[in-house]
Write a structure and sequence with these properties.
heterodimer, A: 98 residues, mainly alpha, elongated, B: 243 residues
């Protein structure tokens, strides 16, 4: 029982740490991967709280589909969090030229 | 800097609001009440789903039977989202007249390719199992459909040339959605209300039991899986802009 509670505490700490990392991190690729970790731990929690159907959904959609959709978005836009980055400004300039 | 303060402020407001609403609810207490003589809605569902509908999974009984009309709305929302995405992003041909998907710059290693080839049918089988057994075990159409979509995702990111037949997927999606509505209309015509279940519900824990529930969940499973696969296929085929 004590090992189980220890496991729960460690998982909770990982959950909160990954969520905070996703907010703080400037590089959006790492932030998206951190949200994937959040979903992973959450699905374990859903399973332990006797909601296995929610756990299946969270595992499939939260870990795989949402993460990959965000990664595709990052590939097509920009990896930097700062909206006024040089890269983005240059791209808009190039679009106006063309 | 201001943006960051704003983000933290919003998070704090969200946290306080969540705590204020859920903090007062007693944790782990039985608020359902007795199921023999139901006084609450949840007790009513827990009593009637095994007794009247012969459905072992009462979540499925609620989603497909008691609240079936809401599920039709949810499926419609997903359909509209997929259609909107496809109408914005889907391109039949590239500028060069090519139809080849442009996905990853490097081919996957042979370990990943072999593993994906072995895992893909197993993932499909698991997804089909989940939605066929939706009325017996945890899970159902949405869960099974999203599991199948992850299997297709594995193939999409492993093989550069792997693609689904867009026409077949769209037809499957539309036909399964139509079948869901037709099942509802069948209940309306024969028994007097939309999505009404048949009185012939079989025995508890049989594979064919629960009347129309497994049938509807199979339709939902096909619809969700094809929709999510279409969304992924459309997103994967966007050509990345040159830097």
């Amino acid at each position: 029982m004590t090992t189980f509670i220890l496991f729960l505490v460690v998982m909770g700490i990982i959950l909160i740490a990954a969520a905070l990392y996703a907010v703080i991190q400037k590089d959006l690729l790492y932030a998206v991967l951190a949200t994937g970790v959040v979903s992973l731990v959450l699905s374990v929690f859903f399973y332990l709280l006797q909601a296995p159907d929610v756990a299946i959904t969270e595992a499939a959609i939260g870990i795989a589909l949402t993460t990959i959709i965000f990664i595709i978005t990052i590939r097509n836009t920009t990896r930097d969090e700062d909206i006024y980055s040089e890269d983005l400004i240059n791209r808009f300039k190039n679009k106006e030229d063309a | 800097m201001l943006k960051k303060i704003f983000v933290w402020f919003l998070l704090a407001v969200l946290g306080i609001a969540l705590y204020a609403s859920f903090g007062r609810a007693p944790f782990g207490e039985n608020r359902v009440g007795p199921t023999d003589n139901p006084a609450t809605v949840s007790a009513f569902y827990l009593k009637n789903s095994p007794e009247k509908l012969q459905t072992a999974n009462s979540v499925t009984a609620i989603v497909v039977n008691f609240r079936g009309f809401d599920t039709l709305g949810e499926v419609t929302v997903l359909f509209l989202a997929a259609t909107g995405l496809a109408s914005i992003l889907y391109r039949k041909e590239d500028e060069e007249g090519e139809h080849l998907p442009v996905r990853i710059n490097l081919p996957a290693s042979s370990i990943v390719r072999t593993g994906a080839k072995i895992l893909f049918p197993l993932i499909l089988l698991l997804g089909i199992y989940i939605f066929v057994h939706g009325h017996l075990t945890p899970g159902g159409g949405f869960q099974g459909g999203s599991v199948i979509a992850t299997g297709f995702l594995l193939m999409f990111i492993t093989y550069r040339r792997f693609g689904t037949n867009h026409k077949v997927m769209v037809w499957l999606e539309s036909l399964s959605g139509l079948a869901f509505v037709l099942t509802g209309l069948y209940g309306l015509i024969k028994y007097g209300s939309f999505l009404q279940n048949t009185p012939d519900v079989g025995h508890l824990n049989d594979l064919v039991s629960g009347g129309l529930i497994p049938l509807i969940y199979i339709f939902i499973g096909i619809k969700v899986s094809t929709e999510l696969t279409n969304v992924l296929d459309t997103l994967m085929n966007i050509k990345p802009k040159k830097r």
